[in-house]
Amino acid sequence: MKGALSWPFMRLYLLTLCYFSGNSILNVIIPLKGEAWGASNTTIGVIMGAYLLTTMLFRPWAGGLIQRHGPIKVLRVILVVNGAALVMYAFTGLGGYLVARVLQGVCTAFFSMALQLGIIDALPEKDRSQGISMYSLCSYMPGMIGPLLAIGIWQTGDMNMFAGIMLVIAVLTGGVGFTAKMDNQSTASTGESEPRNQSAAMWQSFGQLVQNPHLFKSSVLMLSASLIFGAVTAFVPLYAAQIESGSTAVYLMLQAAVVVAARFVLRKKIPSDGKWHSFFMMGTMSLLAAASLCVSLATNVGAILFYAGALLMGVAQALLYPTLTTYLSFVLPKENRNVLLGLFIAMADLGVSLGGIVMGPVADLTSYSMMYMLCAVLGTAMMLVAYNQRSLLAETTAEENKAI
After folding, report:
1. Which of 1, 36, 374, 379 has CA 20 to 30 A from 81's CA?
2. How far is the C-alpha of 169 from the C-alpha of 152, rounded, in Å?
3. pLDDT band at residue 303 under the 50/70/90 scheme
4. Residue 230 is assigned to a structural domain of this protein
C-alpha cells in the first residue's frame, strides 16, 4: 500500500490507537466513580473537562518544543508521563483524578500536534483528508470496546483489574511509541531563535481567530460541536440510568463504531479541494442537532431513540473534524498554517472541555434531558453559521452545469 495507508503511517495510526485506549475506559469510570463518591455534576464536569482544557492551554507551546528537541525525544518523555497518569487512577481519589487528567492533557497536547501536523506535511494534497480521517478513526476505535470493558470492571467492583488494565495500556503505548521512527529533519531546530520566533508567531496569530473568516467560521462550528460531544462523553454514563433499557456501554460503543465505520468508508467522500461545501456542512450540523434531540427525548420515548442518537452523533462526529481540518489546510496562509491549525485544534479541545464544565451546572440546575435539548438548539443554530450563500450558489450552478 502507499499514501495514507503505507506502513510508516499505519504505525502512527497504531500508536494513536494505543494512546487513546485508556480514555475509552476512563470516560465511563470517572463519572460513575465520581457519582459513587457523592460528587455533583459540576465537579464531575470539571474533572472530565480538565483533560482537554489543559491540552488546549499547552498546545501553543507544543509545536515550539517539538521543533527545538525533535519529535522522538518529546514523544518518549510524554509517553512516560502519560503512563504514570494512567496508573494514578487506580490509587487516588477525586483530587488525584484531577491531577491525572491534567497530566494527560499536557501529554495529548504534544502527542496530537506532532502526529497530525506530521501527517499533513508528509502526505500529498490528494491524500491529506484520508490521513487525517485515519488518525481520527484510530483515536475513536478504542471506544468500540472500552465502554463495555469499563462497565464490566464497574459491575465487578474489582479495582485491581482496573489497575492492571491501565498498566497494560501504558506499557503497550510506550512499547509502540519508543520503537517509532520519524523523519525529524523538517521539525528539528536549526537555531536557538527558531522556537522563540514560533512562539511569538503563535501569540501574534491569536487575532487571526477573528480576522481570518475561514478560521473564524470553522472554529465556531468546531467549538460548538465539540461542546455537544463533550456533554455526551461526560454525562451519558449517568444519564443512561434514567432511560428504560438504556445502557452506557451500548450507546458509546454504537457511537464509536459508527465513527470508525464512517471515517473509513466515507474517507474519500470528505471534500479535499479547498472549497467550502455549504450543503455538506449544513447537513453535518443537522445530524448533530437531530442526535442531541434524540438523546434529550429518550427519557420519554425509550432506548430506541437513545441509540438512534448515538448513530447520528457518530456520523456527525466522523465527518466534521476531518472536513474542517482539511479545508483549513488549503485556505490558511502557508507561512503560519501549522500555527493556525494548532489554534483551530485548540478550539476543538476547548469545546469538549466546556461540554463538561459548562453543561455540568446546567444539568444540576435543570436535568440531563433539558441539557441535551439545549445542545440540540445549539446544533440547529450552527446550521446558519455553516451556510455560505456565495458557496451555495456556486455549488448549485456547478450541479446545474453538470446536468446540462
Report:
1. 36
2. 17
3. very high
4. yes
Crossing angle of helices 7-19/21-36, nearest 10°?
Answer: 10
CA dihedral 229, 78, 4, 133 (to 10 degrees): 0
The percentage of residues in the chain with a pLDDT greater than 70, rounded to a whole number, is 87
H/E run at residue 161: helix 159-178
Span of 125-129, 156-160, 351-355 with lowest mean pLDDT = 125-129
> Which amino acid is present at 199?
S
Whether 192 is covered by a domain: the verdict is: no
DSSP secondary structure letters along 164-191: HHHHHHHHHHHHHHHT-----TTTS-SS
In total, the chain counts a number of residues equal to 404
Name the pTM for this structure: 0.79
Q: Are 82 and 103 in contact (CB under 8 A)?
A: yes
Q: What is the rounded CA–CA span in Å between residue 358 and residue 353? A: 8
Residue 291: name the closest of 351, 283, 339, 112 by CA: 283
How many domains are contained in the chain?
1
Chain segment 322-337, per-residue pLDDT in tens? 899 889 988 888 877 7
Contacts of 85 (CB under 8 A, 6+ apart): 100, 101, 103, 104, 107
Residue 153 lies in a domain: yes
Full DSSP string of 275-338: ---HHHHHHHHHHHHHHHHHHHHHHHH-HHHHHHHHHHHHHHHHHHHHHHHHHHHHHS-GGGHH
C-alpha cell at 383: 446550521
- CA–chain centroid gap for 252, Å, is 14
Where residue 367 falls (left for φ over 0; alpha for ψ -120 to 50; beta otherwise) is beta
Q: How far apart are CA 26 and CA 35, in angstroms?
A: 14
The pLDDT score that the predictor gives to residue 400 is 41
| Rounded Cα–Cα distance for residues 63 and 210 (Å) | 22
Domain, as residue range, for 8: 3-179+200-403
For residue 300, tell me if it sits in a domain.
yes
Confidence label for 313 from pLDDT (cuts 50, 70 and 90): very high
The cell numbers describing 64, all together, are 515550539
